[in-house]
Every structure is written in structure tokens, then in C-alpha cells.
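Here's a chain:
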Amino acid sequence: MLGPPPAPTFDTTHGDLEVVASGLDDTGGLMRVEASYDLGELWEAYDQRAWAAVANFGPLAGIPSGWYRCREEGNGTTYVGASEWSEVIVLE
């Protein structure tokens, strides 16, 4: 039986907000990022990309200050359902 993918992580070392997959190839799945602008009280969809081992969400300089978290949604073949949320990162 298939389960959800493992939670992805963030990488900001190259000046971009990148979501890094932690599991197997999940081509056809999604990488989603949510943002909170009130210290994690309310979360809203920020952006999503097709699954990639590293999904780039753009330069940090163009991303508003706030709290961010991400998760992977399975393609139905490798994984089913959504991962747990990643750890939160704060962009200032």
C-alpha cells in the first residue's frame, strides 16, 4: 500500500527559495508552499510547482517577509496523499 511522501525541506543557500524532495522520484506530483504573514496564525497558499527533486520558487529578494512551509503531494503512483508540512522558515 502506498503512503504519503516524506516532508520536503527548504534550501535558501543559492539566494532562491527552493523546495528539496526527501524521497523517491514523484514526477507528476506537486510541491506546494504556504505563507503566513502573522507569525503562523493564518496560512495561505503562496505558490505551487510540478514535482522536481529541487523545485525553485524564485529569488529570495522577490519574496515577501513572512513564515513559509512546504509539502509534497504524491502523484498517485509513487506516493498517495500529501506529506507532513516541512519545518517553518522565516524570511525577513
In short: The domain at 9-91 is CATH 2.60.40.10 (Immunoglobulin-like).
